[in-house]
């Protein structure tokens, strides 16, 4: 059975990975043997400078999901490269490094730092970050998306994956802008802007006031967005949004995604991604599908 897929020239042994920000470092939450089975590893987004993140509470559980506002807590890209990258690379599967910048210049500096590193297999641009110049999220503006992708394209040879926000009128339009600027893939979706209020206190239950909804609650919306986008662009889609089992992942693949990532559900069971992979194999055997490519986008 062939489960391998490609983004540009980068080959993955299978289409299952984890969504940025939703799993710990090896030893914290992952056992190495399990991580080695994945198609790729996507660590939490890093920024140019260290960030403390938002005030707590940062996470609230909601029906079939959760709202989070972590605020990209991280030690900055230099500490990431020095202390963490080699640990991820040792797992032995492609490492997709997620970066986010507050300006074009920050994206540029980070891209320059990653460009020559063989342990960085691909770069995911987390575009759900405020663009200080345009006063929007980059991924909410086709022009800003195009600008950031084109800038990074000039600097790196590794494949570029543009991570898109669902908080737009037409995510397919933004995906098309990323493709036109030279992205090798898009990943979608990031979280949906959301809020939960404690009515007794009449206060938001999130320190940052608002946050982003993820988990099974968003899945049917995400499947539709992937389907719409797959009709529009030629580059591969890495899909995420509430995947909790193989059937969920298969919905995204049949809708047109080339890869699938498990996010929130890893908090319930850190082995969800492995179970998803095993379940895809069972499905392929049952339906006599020898190559995963015969499944991708084949909706009747
Ligand atoms: C606690 C938490 C932290 C996250 N941190 C990041 C992040 O650092 N970078 C990023 O691109 N997405 C981040 N995300 C979004 C996920 O990668 C994913 O796009 C989203 O949660 C939808 O998938 P899911 O429903 O399977 O979680 C985060 C999500 C959660 C729940």
What do these coordinates show?
This protein is of the alpha/beta class and 300 residues long. The protein has a single domain, classed as TIM Barrel (Alpha-Beta Barrel), CATH 3.20.20. It has nine helices and 17 strands. It has helices spanning 32-35, 77-90, 104-115, 142-155, 171-180, 219-230, 246-255, 265-268, 272-286, and strands at residues 5-7, 10-12, 16-18, 59-62, 65-68, 96-99, 122-126, 130-131, 136-137, 160-163, 185-188, 192-194, 197-198, 203-204, 211-214, 237-240, 259-262. The strands form five sheets. Strands 3-17-16-11-10-7-6 form a seven-stranded parallel beta sheet, covered by helices on one side. The protein has a four-stranded antiparallel beta sheet with strand order 4-5-15-12, with no helix packed on it. The model has no long low-confidence stretch (mean pLDDT 94). The protein binds flavin mononucleotide (FMN). Flavin mononucleotide (FMN) binds at residues 19-22, 44-45, 66, 68, 70, 72, 98, 126, 163, 190-191, 214-215, 218, 240-243, 262-264.
Concise summary:
This protein has a seven-stranded parallel beta sheet with strand order 3-17-16-11-10-7-6, with helices on one face. The protein has helices at residues 32-35, 77-90, 104-115, 142-155, 171-180, 219-230, 246-255, 265-268, 272-286, and strands spanning 5-7, 10-12, 16-18, 59-62, 65-68, 96-99, 122-126, 130-131, 136-137, 160-163, 185-188, 192-194, 197-198, 203-204, 211-214, 237-240, 259-262. Helix content is 32%, strand content 19%.
